[in-house]
From TrEMBL:
Pfam families, alphabetized: MobL
Protein's name in the database: Relaxase
Domain of life where this protein originates: Bacteria
Annotated source species: Ligilactobacillus agilis
């Protein structure tokens, strides 16, 4: 992004006198030029440029006055007047110059500070405002001096300088940019004491507040604008303020609150509010408030997206800031930051307005003895949220101090239903594409197989969406068989994958692999979320390998229970540890096939393969009647105690994770059953 030259740049630094020198005119004041003593919203490069162009910044008290009054710098030809301007004169007489020097001497003796302010102007900006003649290139110094004369007193007033403060200025034209020097000091400083040395020598606070500098800069900028531009800017500012007020006013409009989605969201804001009403603030970071904050943001998103006033506010604000940003910076980046600040401030106002209304409503409900806030949300309303939002709310509910398990279960049930609805939509879209495809002769067996599979999966989702109590016995059996046949190998538990389960899955996968190998038109595979045949076949290979590992671990676990031999138990545990590590790697590759290209998947697969000491066999069709066992014979080096302990830890951790997953599944199933019972109870009323 190209750099923008700021219209106005301001830099202020202060000087501290050195009392060790006797001769006033020859003394060297301690001028602090490090960044800590230099102020203004300028970067290091700009600072270096100003210091190079304006060497007088390194001068001290009286020498600074002489230097800034250079004839060559100010281009003033009068012998009787100086180039220095003050609050009263545009070209002060020589007597005034002497008077300023005398005042500086008193200020120095009283240990007052001297501030050196440099205000630099972009040449193009001055030309646009008619302050540089396009033909003669003559600068309108009178106008610039008048602007500084109006702005400096406000700056000094903001900083609380003493009544005996004084200042003087000079316009310099001998550098790339026109700049104005302003010197500021006090006869008797009233500034706060910054430090005191061992000799009792005091040093007053030198830094000006950034807010004061920014206000000075804004004053200079607006004063230099042409009257027409200034009027447009004022009108635009007033219009933006009007739009902001309209947005805030209409958030309480009944029209906004009768929309079903908005009613639901506002209801969730209210129902999830913490008992401590001091936390009912939009910017509150309290964990108990975050669920309400989530729904409040959703409510505001919907409202602002539909608000024409807000869209106009955004457009006008961005246009205003784009025109105004040159006053502040060289980079366009702060434009986005400035707008974001305005946007967040408006959202905060809107959020607090709604919370204030809810607080009044809550007080009214409490006076009636009603506890509407304790009611659980309706599942049909919750499933209107997407799965990402539901998952986020579940995480926020878990982080609360007192977890409401009933409410958490309701959201988990809604998330399950939402995922099923999304899957149903995906299967319907998939079926539509399968029916529209014109398959080659070689591809028809695969297309027919996937069409039949799609019909069964849609039937399964329909069964899953219905509460169990509404299913007939035949539907329950069909649901169970379909779940067994089309279970996701990556998600099914180790306990489930016995020999009969593996046989059914292996038969289905082997059949699908054969017909998929024959496909010529690889664009068919994009229907199923993979880029090509190679990736699709890789996924099938991984499915079978994952199931085979889980089956063998299952068999080993049964053998561990039945055997009494410690040697055999040790061997089975080592075999399981090795297979579980292999399973983790294969799951990583399997999940990547849905998200990455075949090239990336193969790269990940290669990296995993390189970590292994032994090679694995490629996919081969499996004879289901007598499925081959993978060769997991462990290497037999001398096993030290540390090695054995490490393996035991791995095995125990894997078993614990599997047990935890099983417990969570049982809890979810129990909660789902509970929700279905609740639905049945409501249905029977």
């Amino acid at each position: 992004m190209a750099e923008l030259s700021p219209a106005v740049t301001v830099m202020i630094q202060f000087s501290v006198p050195n009392p060790q020198h006797v001769a006033y005119t020859n003394r060297k004041e301690a001028v602090r030029n490090d960044l800590d003593q230099i102020q203004g919203d300028i970067d290091q490069a700009s600072l270096a440029q100003i210091q190079a162009e304006v060497p007088e910044l390194a001068k001290g008290f009286s020498r600074y006055v002489n230097y800034t009054n250079r004839v060559i710098a100010t281009q003033n030809d009068s012998q009787n007047l100086t180039a220095m301007f003050t609050a009263e004169e545009n070209n002060a007489p020589q007597e005034k110059l002497i008077e300023v020097k005398e005042k500086l001497k008193v200020a120095q003796e009283n240990h007052s500070l001297m501030w050196q302010c440099v205000t630099s102007f972009d040449t193009n900006f001055l030309k646009e405002q008619g302050l540089i003649d396009p033909v003669t290139q003559k600068v309108n110094q009178v106008a610039i001096k008048e602007v500084i004369r109006e702005a400096i007193p406000e700056l000094l007033e903001r900083e609380g300088l003493s009544p005996d403060r004084f200042w003087w200025g000079n316009v310099h034209l001998n550098t790339k940019h026109v700049h104005v020097h302003v010197g500021i000091s006090e006869l008797n400083s009233q500034r706060a004491v910054y430090s005191k040395d061992s000799n009792g020598q005091i040093e007053f606070k030198g830094k000006f507040k950034q807010k004061s500098i920014k206000a000075y800069k804004s004053k200079v900028y607006h004063s230099l604008l042409r009257q027409r531009d200034r009027r447009l800017l004022i009108n635009q500012t007033a219009y933006i303020d009007f739009l902001k007020k309209e947005v805030v006013k209409k958030i309480s409009s009944p029209v906004n609150k009768v929309q079903d989605q908005q009613v639901f969201l506002l209801g969730q804001v209210y129902r999830n509010l913490p008992t401590n009403k001091r936390l009912w603030r939009y910017k509150s970071n309290a964990q108990d408030f975050q669920v309400s904050k989530f729904f409040l943001d959703k409510y505001l998103d919907n409202y602002l997206a539909a608000s024409q006033d807000y869209q106009l506010f955004v457009e006008e604000s961005k246009d205003y800031l784009a025109n105004y940003q040159q006053v502040y910076t060289k980079s366009a980046t702060p434009l986005a930051e400035a707008f974001d600040k305005r946007r967040l401030e408006l959202r905060s106002r809107l959020g607090n307005k709604l919370l204030k209304e809810l607080k009044a409503y809550d007080k009214q409900q409490a006076s009636k003895g009603q506890k509407q806030r304790l009611r659980l949300p309706n599942v049909n309303d919750l499933v209107q949220l997407d799965s990402k939002d539901l998952g986020q709310v579940i995480d926020l509910l878990k982080q609360r101090g007192n977890v409401n398990n009933q409410l958490l279960g309701r959201y988990r049930y809604a998330l399950r239903q939402r995922n099923l609805l999304d899957k149903q939509t995906s299967l319907e879209a998939q079926n539509l594409r399968l029916t529209q495809i014109k398959a080659l002769a070689t591809d028809k067996p695969f297309v027919s197989l996937k069409q039949a599979e799609n019909r069964k999966l849609r039937a399964l989702v329909a069964y899953q969406l219905k509460p169990t109590y509404q299913l007939s016995e035949a539907e329950k059996r069909a649901k169970k068989n379909l779940l067994k046949k089309y279970a996701d190998p990556s998600k099914v538990s180790l306990k489930t994958v016995n020999q009969s389960f593996f046989d059914a899955q292996a038969r289905r996968i082997t059949e699908e692999f054969k017909v998929a190998q024959a496909v010529q038109d690889e664009s068919i595979f994009t229907i199923f979320g993979v880029p090509n045949k190679e990736t699709y076949l890789l996924k099938l290979k991984q499915q079978l390998a994952i199931l085979n590992i889980k089956r063998q671990v299952n068999q080993n676990n049964k053998a561990l229970i039945s055997t009494t031999s410690e040697v055999e138990k040790s061997k089975l545990k080592r075999d399981n540890a090795k297979m579980l590590r292999d399973l983790q790697e294969r799951l990583q590759v399997y999940r990547a096939t849905d998200l990455k290209s075949a090239q990336q998947v193969n790269k990940l697969k290669l990296e995993n393969e390189q970590k292994k000491a032994t090679t694995r066999e490629e996919f081969k069709p499996i004879q289901v009647a007598n499925p081959p066992r993978a060769n997991y014979t462990p290497v037999r080096p001398h096993l030290g105690l540390r090695f054995t302990q490490g393996l035991n830890k791995i095995i125990k951790r894997a078993e614990q994770e599997e047990l935890h997953a099983l417990r969570m599944k049982l809890q979810d199933d129990a909660q789902i059953e509970y929700e279905e019972q609740q639905e049945r109870w409501r249905y029977s009323r």
